[in-house]
Design brief:
Blueprint lengths: L1 E7 L3 E5 L12 E3 L13 E4 L7 H5 L22 E9 L8 E2 L7 E7 L2 E8 L15 E2 L1
Parallel strand pairs: 3-5
Antiparallel strand pairs: 1-2, 1-5, 4-5, 6-9, 7-8
């Protein structure tokens, strides 16, 4: 199963299944029984928002707006606009995987599961979500 991850700086994170037209991304992370933990930064592309807040449909409609990050490795730093972050992943279908964002101060994270460009599931995470409502009750944000 192939997935991608998108992150909107300090606001939004999305988990996506492959979408037609998303060919400009770096090589996908490959997850199988031989992998316990994968560092995802090498597969990241980003898109900055300019102006109004984008919907997931608007982001999916313009995959060409994603580009490799510039600056320090594995950080988005502080900035005036939200940033979407995409990470393509190919995972074995016979295993379960956890997406963990080990940065507790994030207030709001939205995780979307998509297939063929359609949203199948949405999960909200972040430090404003009560522990009892989180998919995994751990300190880090995880789904």
């Amino acid at each position: 199963m192939s997935v991608s991850v998108l992150l909107r700086r300090c606001a939004l994170l999305l988990l996506l299944l492959p979408t037609p037209g998303w060919t400009a991304a770096p090589a996908a992370l490959r997850l199988d029984a031989s992998v316990e933990v994968a560092e995802a930064w090498s597969a990241v592309t980003i898109r900055e928002e300019a102006g109004s807040e984008l919907s997931v449909e608007e982001v999916l409609a313009a995959p060409e707006r994603f580009a490799a990050p510039v600056g320090a490795r594995a950080t988005l730093g502080l900035g005036p606009t939200p940033v979407w972050l995409r990470i393509p992943v190919v995972a074995a279908t016979d295993s379960d995987w956890v997406l963990e964002i080990n940065y507790p101060p994030l207030n709001r994270i939205e995780v979307y599961l998509l297939r063929d460009g359609r949203v199948l599931q949405r999960t909200e995470l972040g430090n404003r979500v009560p522990s009892a409502e989180r998919p995994l009750r751990i300190r880090a944000h995880a789904v």
